[in-house]
Amino acid sequence: MIRSEILRDIAPILRDQLVVCNIGLPSQELHMIDDQPTNFYMLGTMGLSSSIGLGLALAQDKTVISIDGDGSVLTNLGTLPTIANNVADNYILMIIDNGSYGSTGDQPTYAGKKTSLTAVARACGCENVVECQDVDAGKVLQAAIDSKKMTVIVVKCDSGNIKLPVITMDPVVIRDRFMTAIKA
Amino acid sequence: MSIDKKIVDDLVANDISFVTTVPCKQLAGVIEEVEARPEIFHIPSNKEDEGMGLCAGAFMGGKRPAIIMQNTAIGVTINTLATLIQYYRMPLPMLISYRGELREPVACQVEMAVHTKALLNQMNVPTYHFHKESDVDELDAILKYTFMCNKPVAILTDASFWGGYGDQ
């Protein structure tokens, strides 16, 4: 499976949760598949999906899922020790690991070579780290939500993209809609 | 009252309850004070752009955030300021140690000091420079201004403000 197929698969689970979605194609795909006010789309700032999600989880009680990519986590690798040392049991980091920089043309990442983000997350001190295959992403995500324990999920999948339009929604509208949904 | 305590009192009085920090020798006392206050959740970050991401999330979750960092971090955070904090219009007080100013013992710090105000100016970030100890009296008004206008705002605090570096 490629990332867009995984997102389509887990969309029914995501729709009831607060979701911070990574820049580029992941946000465009989620926006096309199931646009929700509970989705925060990143239009820029590669690497910060996990940080924004952690800050949000620490600030309020609802479950927060950060959807990130292997390339973006590698860009902001310092996020994993921060996550490990500031446990928020309403926080799930889902890294869709296709071993490539999808939004820029599928150039390979080091996570697709010798580097295991699962092992890195564990070495950083994250206590609940689950690596799974694409077909199991929904099951593992639901289990993580139900566990009410901070969880890092690394979903191994194929690289590949679908053609789709950019998000034209104004960032302040995305943010305001999201904040209203958080308070609801 | 110590300057560190006065600064953190102002943060608390303005309902700032989520503070991320990247250390600096000059800011050590403030960071210690932030860590000690039960009203504030203190979360050290490994890099300042990561810290701004944490602050963005905390703000959307209903908390007033702040970041404490060195001016060298302006070089690290230009993209995050432009595409996250400013683009989504979020407030962010940035208490910044202004290294490389008068009394600076480390020459390399001057290399970023000479760019600091120019970069902040280019980014249209409202910038205040604390040089004398009494300048801290404006902090409360600066914090209110930040959350009124929903912008990142820089407070540069130089070595003269902090009373020098002591014996070098």
TrEMBL record, chain A:
Q: What is the lineage of its organism?
A: Bacteria, Pseudomonadati, Pseudomonadota, Alphaproteobacteria, Rhodobacterales
* UniProt protein name: Thiamine pyrophosphate enzyme TPP-binding domain-containing protein
Show the Pfam families listed in the entry: TPP_enzyme_C
Q: Which one GO biological process term can you cite for this protein?
A: small molecule metabolic process
Species this chain originates from: Pelagimonas varians
Per UniProt, the keywords (alphabetical) are: Decarboxylase, Lyase
Q: Where do the Thiamine pyrophosphate enzyme TPP-binding domain residues begin and end?
A: 39-155
Q: Name one GO molecular function term.
A: carboxy-lyase activity
UniProtKB/TrEMBL annotation, chain B:
Keyword annotations for this protein, in alphabetical order, are: Decarboxylase, Lyase
Highest taxon above the source species = Bacteria
Task: Give one GO term, molecular function aspect.
Answer: sulfopyruvate decarboxylase activity
User: Known InterPro entries for this protein?
Assistant: Sulfopyruvate_deCO2ase_alpha (IPR022502), THDP-binding (IPR029061), TPP_dependent_decarboxylase (IPR051818)
Please give the SUPFAM superfamilies that the UniProt record associates with this protein.
Answer: Thiamin diphosphate-binding fold (THDP-binding)
Supply the NCBIfam families for this chain: sulfopyru_alph
> What name does this protein carry?
Thiamine pyrophosphate enzyme N-terminal TPP-binding domain-containing protein
The top of its lineage is: Bacteria, Pseudomonadati, Pseudomonadota, Alphaproteobacteria, Rhodobacterales
